[in-house]
Design a protein that fits this description.
With 265 residues, the protein is an all-alpha fold. Helix 12 crosses helix 13.
Length: 265
Amino acid sequence: MEGPAKFASLDPDLSRRLHRALTASKDELYEVLLDPSMEVLQAAVRNPSLAENHLLALLKRRDLSEDFLKALYRNRFVAESHGLKVAMVHNPGTPGQIILALLPHLYLFELVDICFLAGGTPDQKLAAERAIVQRLPTTPLGNKLTLARRGTSTVVEALLREGDSRLVEPCLDNPRLKESTIFQFLNSSKSTAETISMVARHPRWKGRPNLQLAILKNPRTPAVWFNLFLSHFGVADLQGIIASRRLTPAQKKLVTDELKRRGHG
């Protein structure tokens, strides 16, 4: 039973704060929730005047203990409130297993926000990325286009792997896209003449030698890119290109003609 007897053996100041936490009015609770003691906060969560807004304010604190957050996760307000679920995921002290349990309840772009959350932990961001990628098969095209422009490198890589020509251009424009991801895409079965050409003419990527070589070794690359890129490479590179078993006879002829032009035919 809560009461003066319970707090008699405690430090007088802590006893007073605990009693106040249990009995404070709705307005006074906001001040109580600033207390540095997790014990006081645990008492405040049992206050009959507690409401969702109190917990939203509390979850903005970055010094909440893992044990306290575990207990808060079981609170009925969290179970019933979407906003509190989001706030718990945003708090850097929330244990990983709780974050994983909460992520399925979040909306797609709430997950994106977590990926870029200032002060967020690597585990939070990784879990959010994984949740986004898992949803991609059922994500509408419009949302995928937004993800292609705004997503992390991991999310953009997953989108590019889909090979949808409508997504390739915004993926290429994303500043977080890595050259190695495009290289892998160019060497995959998902690349097409259309999407290869998107890479080949993109202002940011068209001048990358590694990507040009990958383009010239792809059997689906249109002839125009052989005519434009072959002159950028030395004889040894051209011989490496023509040795590729993936090239079509017409593509090999273009490389052979370039070698003959240089006197190596």
